[in-house]
Amino acid sequence: MRKASALTRFVASGFALGAILSGCGQTPEPTAGSAAPPNVQAPAAGKYLARAGDPAALPAGSVYRNPASGRDEVVVPDMRHTALLIGDSQSEPADGWPRLGLAAVGYKVHFCGLGGTGFVAANGKTGNYIDALERGDWKLPYGTPALIVIQGGGNDAAQGATDAQIVANADRLIGALQDRYPGARMAMIGTLARGANYGGGRRTQVDALIGAVAARHGLPYVGVGDWLTKYNLAKNLADAVHMDAAGRRSLGGLLESRLRILGLEGLPVDITVPVAASALAPPD
Q: How many structural domains compose the chain?
């Protein structure tokens, strides 16, 4: 009998969602068919704290003005074991499959993003990924994440974004994150879809496009543009593009396997990741 995956054991034990943190000032809502997580990190309180304060002494969720970046950032506990996940409505729920996959390989998750957004797509309240970052629509965490994951593309496909627009904004986002967190590991996850020969359409095309962007930047990539048909998961669609609870668990298990193949597991709890100098040093 095949050994149960870490995700299966994690969910069954009742601890999976407790390790999946919210972030960027938004508390994720439980999706249909799922239970609310027992220990979701509180969103940022929005209280401004003077730049002279010691961020290590501030409570989780505090907003701190980073003197190196000049931006307000969120104090997140245990960044050495935390993945920063930037994404859309596939990632936003507390039991979204990207969160489940990351949790299963050892990460706590700090989420930045919002449903309806993407590399180019905005949802009216929040800008696309790079605009939201630069405007402060959502806030990055203070300190260096153990892993940065960018997921998306579905809303860009739906809103008719061109290849050139998607590539340009993806390049800008990757560059901004590499400037902010030099040396941090980074990966990308594409656009969930049916295969090209099964009605995947523009979503599958965008998935391939994001894969090409990741390859050009030398980033590990998990393409998901055919997963709905390849793994017979279209039956678990709750609507045209989102999964029911069983589908999210299945996708989370598949993502767990891919992350392990790519060598992107989280570090054991007794190993620390050094904080990048730019996260602590004041500007010259």
A: 1
